[in-house]
Amino acid sequence: MIVSAHLPVIQVIIPLIAAPVCSLLPKSRIAWIFTSLISVATFLVSIAITLQVNTIGLLSYNMGNWPAPWGISYYIDHLSALLLVLISAIACITLISSRALLEQEIPAHKRSLFYTAFLLCMTGLLGIVATGDAFNVFVFLEISSLSAYALIAMGRDRKALMAAYQYLIMGTIGATFILIGIGLLYMQTGTLNMLDLHQRISTIASFRSVHAAFAFFTVGIFLKLALFPLHQWLPNAYTYAPSAVSIFLAATATKVALYLLYRVFYTLFGFEFSFEVLHLSSILMPLSIIAVIVSSLVAIFQTDVKRMLAYSSLGQIAYMTLGISLQTQAGLIASIIHLFNHAFIKGALFMCLACLASSIKTTQCQGLAGVGRSHPWVCAAFVLGGLALIGIPPTSGFISKWYLVSAIFESSSWWLAIIVMFTSLLAVVYVWRVVEQMYFREPTSELVSLHATPRLLLAATWLMIFLTVYFGIDNRYPVSMASAAVESLL
Amino acid sequence: MISALINDLYAYWISVLLMMAGLYIVIDHSNLFKKLVGLNIFQTSVFIMFIAMGKVDGGTAPIIEKGYTVFSNPLPHVLILTAIVVSIATTSVGLALVVKINKHYQSVDEQEIEKIELQE
Questions:
Q1: Below-50 pLDDT ranges, chain A
Q2: ipTM score here?
Q3: CATH for B2-119, among 1.10.287.3510, 3.40.50.720, 1.10.3720.10, 1.10.760.10?
Q4: A183 vs B53: CB contact, 8 Å cut-off?
């Protein structure tokens, strides 16, 4: 057996098999070492897949050797490879650095179960990206969502329970809508393979049930994506989840939903059908614009910094959908590049908050008064992450904004550029509020009783910040992957 | 013509009715437990839709046997087995959450819980 031929399935199956094993491990320390090793292995596999994709192009894998339209096939192109690397890299960094956080936030007897749920969530996200079968997408979507509900509910505040419950209701409705869409398409075409579906849909594009399927997919994916006005579940879920979960979900979960959007609207339905027959842009663009403006404004008025970042995430997701709604190649490239960059930026910022939460036990804006003096490294990382969020060179946020704005100018809708600039200024406001508290306020007396910041976590935070700056200077990897991905999508 | 529309498609009509009823319960009820019941009805309606589409008039179970030439499509039925498992998992996670919420808030009513949170 040649291992390299089976990499697409190995990618997904490693964390899937590791999850039940992990639940049997008695001590949290052993579970942590085990999960970290698994995540490193997953990351290495994703790198190997990227190398293969770069040489061969499209990787296809037939599960159990059943040929394509009958069996379940996994397809990995440049876009999937980029997402696989992203998910497994962030899972790896989060898991290795999470031990100190878990010791403070999760009771000892639940820690190995926490790692189990984390591995399952990772399996689901990787599976959505790897698979080329429409029903398989639904199954992996539910695997990742169900484990995410459990992870969020482990937050220490009892509000975490309500947040998880609301996410469960919204998430299940979204996934079921996607299932209805899959059902309607299957009814018309008799196939579940995405490439096969694409070919058959083009001959029956005028059918009412195909249009209905498109509508169900749209609503379902927008729910998972937390696009305005279907975003209600996200701020609470990110705010009350355990720190490690916030980092991981904020950096990956909505990105995978966005990946699903690319896959369904470009690969499955095809650009022509989605944008020219059914005018997806005419709903995607107004919603994105409203989302960017409203969520940036709401972020300014948040008292909890974690919640502020959650609202900022909603705005950043809307930049990505805005890129798509331009209907140009440049817009799509900008969207994918921002997806990649934002994962590291938001991951780094949530890690800064995790450092602060474990050290001074608060993420309230007022509680951060004067922490710039006691935690210089964490606050410096937050400032750099904040600069990237705003889009200031030499961070990767600048690269994203640059591609987005040039794509906007290329499609000669200059008023959109004004909106992007204006919302970037709003980002300055909400980042500045925190920075001001950190550096220009007198520390309150409560800050005296400090725990040390977990070293591994601080190192991980700086690794993420380093990546943010690195991809701001040398952006060849995301740009080349995004361009190649767009070639195959359009 | 109308009777044909109802007779031929009655499985789909039932599916849509249940779908709307389930979704309405999820939106309307403030009792967390009843919301989950609504969610279940909503999911079940989709299962009925899948099962109905696999049925072929006069078709039997897909087992090759002399004298039978028309078979129902087994694939949607198998897909729904998976979806039922997913639905059971969702319900059990949801119920576990409701139990925990009840333990921490002494209530399973969304509006009451909102009041408790506002008082804090």
A1: none
A2: 0.93
A3: 1.10.287.3510
A4: yes
